[in-house]
Amino acid sequence: MIEQHLEIEGSNGRKIAIDYRYKTTDKLVTPIVYIHGFKGFKDWGSSNKVADTFAENGFFYLKFNFSHNGVTQENPIDFVDLEAFGNNNYYLEFLELGLIIDWLEKENLPIDFSKLAVIGHSRGGGIALLRTAQDTRIYKAITWASVSDFESRFPKDVSEWETNGVVYIYNGRTEQNMPLNFQFYSSFYAHKQVLDIPKRCLDITQNVLVIHGTEDPVVGMEEAKEICRKVKYATLEIIENSGHTFGGFHPEKGNVLPSDLYKVVQLSIAFLLKL
Mind listing the domains of the chain with CATH numbers? Predict the structure, then answer.
């Protein structure tokens, strides 16, 4: 197994941390780019076991940290850069997924770039859908517990947020109050045409696999069904009695993938292998 870790230039002078892995072979392999969600990072929970599983099955698997997700290269699993976190937004993430794809296209790696796939979890699923709708380099897309709309997540009354310039989101795992600056709201509306998931899903012509758990308390099953109603070539796979992370925890528990997450990975592999 070959595994590499590096950084590339991201937004506002900050770096995007990347790692990728694949098995050596004399054939070009299918590349996958994984996009983490809100309060997520590339090394969350069982992410490395997931990456190893894809690589063992003959894929090139790349995951990365958005430059403003709040972790750093020195502290890859702790939110130590809350200034960056507060200045993150949907449009920045949309652009940075494009930067990752640009980088992957230019590097001399043993991949079949024409088969490029993206996998996004939760908010990352929304970013994956938006990029897929507008980037013909993406061949297939997969969402895990994805949101179907960004706009509906904003509070109806943002006057206090606008006045104070910031709101705080409590992170129960880390016991941190994490800032969201008002630019998060204003940047969405400045770029709404690009970031309108329901509208952009109508433009997707690629095959999309939508995987969702029936007991997801964060993103309801109705959102998966809504994605499938909008995307012309979408397939829905339901994981019964599964939650938002499909049994995954951070820090991870045990030495094997949780059973539901294993199902998610196997469904994803089968979708990517299907002609």
Answer: 2-150+192-273 (3.40.50.1820)
